Amino acid sequence: MLISLTVGKVDAGVAVLLTEDKRLIEFPSILLPPSISSGSIVDITVSRNFASEAASQKSFQALQSSILSTYGQQSPSPPILRCRNATQTSVVLEWDPVSLATAELRSLSLYRNGSKAGNIPKPMEMTSTKISGLAVDTEYNFNLVLRTSAGVYSSEKLTVRTHKMTDLSGITVTPGIMAPPLRESLSGAVERIGAKIAENVRIDTTHFVCMEGRGREWEKAVEMNIPVVRPEWVEGCEREGRIVGVRGYYLNADPKLRQVGQGVGLQSPQRQQQRSEGRIEGPASSTTSIPNNQLPIREQPDSSTSVSANNLRASNQPPPPSSPSEGGSPAPPPPAKDTPREAPNSQMSPSQSAASMPASPERESAPSQTASTDQVDNSSIHKLKRGTKENGITSPKKEDNASMVDIAL
Fold first, then answer.
1. Residue 13's pLDDT is what?
2. Alpha-carbon distance 167 to 138, whole Å?
3. Residue 383 CA to chain centroid, in angstroms?
4. How many CA within 13 A on the CB side of residue 130?
5. Are 8 and 17 contacting, i.e. CB atoms less than 8 angstroms apart?
6. Alpha carbon distance 17, 28 (integer Å)
7. 293 vs 279, 289, 301, 402, CA distance in Å?
8. Cα 360 to Cα 366: distance, rounded to the nearest angstrom
9. Model pLDDT, residue 89
10. Are 350 and 370 in contact (CB under 8 A)?
11. Of 191, 213, 292, 354, which residue is the least packed, with the fewest Cβ within 10 Å?
12. Position 195 pLDDT exceeds 90
């Protein structure tokens, strides 16, 4: 198609062309002949290049196909979470390697019961993790969340329940250095309690059993904070029918700390001290403390009763002869053994007891009998004091009559 245009103005880069109906068209001046100036008329032929258009369209479609095959056919895969092992207080989770396709990784996070538990370090390398500090016999829900430049992908929720204290199937033992017979015995005990044996220390290893603390596996167990115990620990679990504490089964632990019997352990030094201080252990391991002021005390006899009984005992024995050096007079002879005599009242003297009783014909001889009893009592008390002074014993005070009676008896 041929078009005639009039040059209106020519600049260094753009020329203004006018159509027959006086419309302005900006046209690159580099495409015009060099001798063009204002008022010149130029003829421009316009045609469509179909060959070049087809080639360009084909090239563009190839580029789109390449982009689709590279970035549109594959996308990041949601992680698949599994439970590798569970114990009374811990869970070991594992998953397949992360598939990102052509996307870029942002983060890989672990969620517990809907709350974020933390980010997985080195998610392109690590495929397992261990969660400790869980409650016994409790159900938990876990899921992984993968964040990439192509979007967010979450795994299915995994429900895990921690074991009971009597469930020993979660124990994984790695044996260390020990004698072959002891190793065979350990294998049998582990099999009987339903536990597992791993030849190498792994993330799900719960206990490292050995007799000597050395070796590459022992160093790895110490580095991973895995309890290192003796073979007796497995035997203790089998005997108790439940998982037992490892405190008494460390390589350098005191054997007295180990549990013995069905749920019964040796008494600790603190409990032995409490028992020696007067604490009583009940059948349910309860301890009752009895204050010293409430301990049972033997009742002391009354002072007046004890003195009277002593005087009566002394009256049945013949008094020793008195010497002139003592300055005393001879004591009257004791009454005959066949003479009946009443014991004085525990709270009143013989004379007061006789005076308080009414006079009767049968008790006409009471005054003489009472006087004789008073003489015998005075003689006995005098003998007690004299013997105490000769032996160098100081007489007790009046308020300590009970002690004086004990010394005399």
1. 86
2. 13
3. 73
4. 15
5. yes
6. 10
7. 14, 12, 20, 21
8. 10
9. 94
10. yes
11. 292
12. yes
Q: 374 in helix, strand or coil?
A: helix
Burial state string for 24-58 with b = 16 or more CB within 10 A and e = fewer than 16: eeebebeebeeeeeeebebeeeeeeeeeeeeeeee
What stretch of H or E contains 31? none
Cα–Cα distance measured from residue 2 to residue 221, given in angstroms and rounded to the nearest whole number:
91
> What amino acid occupies position 17?
L
* Buried-state track 392-405, b at ≥16 Cβ within 10 A, e below 16: eeeeeeeeebeebb
Q: Please write the tens of the pLDDT for every residue from 4-45.
A: 889 888 888 899 999 888 888 898 888 888 888 888 888 888
3-state SS assignment for residue 51: helix
Residue 343 gets the label, from left (phi > 0), alpha (psi -120 to 50) or beta, of beta
Rounded Cα gap, residues 193 and 283, in angstroms:
30
Please state whether beta strands 172-175 and 196-197 pair in parallel, antiparallel, or not at all (unpaired): parallel
Check if the beta carbon of residue 10 is closer than 8 Å to that of residue 39: no
Burial of 390 (0-12, 13-18, 19+ CB in 10 A): exposed
* Residues whose CB is less than 8 angstroms from the CB of residue 213 and which lie 6 or more positions away in sequence, other chains included: 228, 251
Distance CA 206, CA 138 (A): 19
Neighbouring C-beta atoms of residue 316, cutoff 10 Å: 10
> Encoding tokens for residue 149?
């430049």
CA dist list (Å): 20 to 10, 23, 33, 38: 18, 7, 21, 16
d(CA 158, CA 86): 13
pLDDT digits (tens, 9 = 90+) for 82-97: 999 999 999 999 999 9
The bridge status of strand 91-95 relative to strand 105-112 is unpaired
Sign (positive or negative) of CA dihedral 2, 4, 8, 12: positive
Which residues are 91's β-sheet partners? 86, 131
* Residue that the structure tokens 């002690």 belong to: 403
Residue 180: in which H helix or E strand, if any? helix 180-192
